[in-house]
Design goal:
The complex is a heterodimer of chains A (63) and B (153). With 63 residues, chain A is mainly α. Chain A contains two helices and no strands. Chain A has one domain. Chain B has one domain. Chain B contains six helices and no strands. The chains are: A mainly alpha (63), B mainly alpha (153). Chains A and B meet through helix 1 of A and helix 3 and helix 6 of B.
Chain lengths: 63, 153
């Protein structure tokens, strides 16, 4: 597995596990907690995709 | 025909906060398991997630490395000390990794020269940080339980 792919998979896994642990105590029912975890995970991933796009655009002007 | 004497059900009691923190730190997720039926699912999720994250980190040659504490020594770095403190949140896993590094036990010891060491250590760091959150969450649940018991009396 290449170095970059491993970092991308790590990003997905680590954001998922952080969302799971922080979100599992939100809401009284498992369904509420599950919705919270998924919403949290999606928002974190979208933030990282946004950051990636910004870095990519900056890289176009480098050198 | 004999009739069974009705045994009074034991009065629910909150768990000792010291025990909750100590055991929750030592075995990630066990703080919730101490809270009984209501904390069982959360405890198992935390236990599995934190252990899996740390084990993935170790398999990537990451782990806990003893930092240089003396300010005047060449290798002193505040970030390394903070990283160490957060990683130690993973309890027995972190202690085992630290012992393996000190004893040069190749299967579990971190390898700072390895290309994947930084990534693996990030997994261990995440596992340690998450356990601090889990301990705090279990404490909150325990306080809530104590309050409910008080309200019933």
């Amino acid at each position: 597995m290449t170095f970059g792919i491993l970092h991308l998979l790590s990003l997905v896994y680590l954001t998922g596990v952080v969302s799971l642990i922080l979100g599992m105590d939100e809401g009284e029912t498992p369904a509420q907690a599950g919705r919270h975890v998924l919403g949290c995970w999606t928002r974190i991933l979208l933030c990282f995709v946004g950051l990636g796009v910004v870095v990519y655009v900056f890289s176009l002007f480098a050198g | 025909m004999t009739t069974k004497n009705a045994q009074p059900s034991p009065r629910p009691r909150p768990v000792s906060p010291f025990l909750l923190v100590a055991l929750g730190w030592l075995i990630p997720g066990s703080g919730f398991l101490l809270l009984g039926r209501k904390g069982r699912a959360r405890g198992l999720i935390a236990l599995l997630a934190i252990h899996l994250t740390f084990i993935v980190g170790v398999s990537l040659k990451g782990g806990v490395v003893w930092p240089v504490w003396a300010v005047r020594e060449a290798g002193f770095n505040l970030i390394n000390i903070l990283t160490f403190l957060v990683e130690m949140g993973a309890g027995w896993l972190a202690a085992l990794s630290l012992a393996a590094h000190a004893g040069a036990w190749a299967h579990f010891a971190p390898a700072p020269a390895n290309a994947y060491f930084e990534l693996g250590s990030l997994y261990c760091l995440t596992a340690g940080a998450l356990n601090y959150f889990v301990i705090r969450q279990s404490q909150e649940r325990n306080e809530k339980k104590a309050f409910e018991i008080l309200a019933k009396q």
